[in-house]
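Reply to thread "Modeling small-molecule complexes from scratch"

Following up on the discussion above, here's a worked example others can learn from. I took a protein sequence and the SMILES for zinc ion and predicted the complex. Inputs first:
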Amino acid sequence: MNNKITTLLLLLFFAFSFQSCKDDNKDNTTPPTSILGDASKAYLSGAVPSLDIQIDYITGFKPTNQTIVNLKNFLSARLNKPGGISVSLREIPSPQNSKYTIEQIRTLETQNRTVSSSLSTMSAYVIYLDNDYIESQGNQVVLGIAYSSTSFAIFEKTIKSLSGGLGEPSETTLESAVTQHEFGHLLGLVNTGTPITSNHHDEANGAHCTNNDCLMHYSIQTGTSLGNLLGGNIPDLDIDCIRDLQANGGK
Ligand SMILES: [Zn+2]
Ligand SMILES: [Zn+2]
């Protein structure tokens, strides 16, 4: 009995020290939960009842209103958040980077993130950027990247260059697909924080799903399945990915 109380107090202590640490925006240390997928259960289950999402965008690279609506609908369908999901949008000036490295993206987050997680509220940080990822070149591009347990970046300039034209998906469709795909990584998909309940992990391509109709197929992130997005279809999670989320506290 005493041991249980000690364990609980320790857990509470860690939860509060994490909170006070995250409240200090001047703190440059790596957040304690910076391993991708580590926050999946807290996002999925109702144990932490609310979710605050901060979306920053570089001037001129704002996601469409419909993309925000689509993201909220996607998350509402899968996360147990009886306290609600709130989204705040904010414009930030361009840091004038040529192409972005992960380190440059982390620096922007450190300078601009104001949301933090607590026992009652989970947080997520999303940034829409005005240039390509450092490793994007030719038709080998990265459209989004989840780089910590609670944050991801969308390469909005790259998305704009591949959408809205003849024979291309609409900006909202591509933006929504990539944004929801990256959030799927924060939810622990595939087999990275949220354990698999069936054999659908495409290990050769990282934390992705073997089903090429699934939102978590690797091609969403690299834009190699743009043809599938014509007609405004945003891929959904397949039943295998949904079952994984349900087994880890989601709905
Ligand atoms: Zn991915
Ligand atoms: Zn899947």
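What I'd highlight from this example: The longest helix spans residues 2-23. The pocket of zinc ion (ligand 2) is lined by residues 200, 209, 211, 214, 216, 237-238, 240-241 (CB under 6 Å). Questions welcome below.
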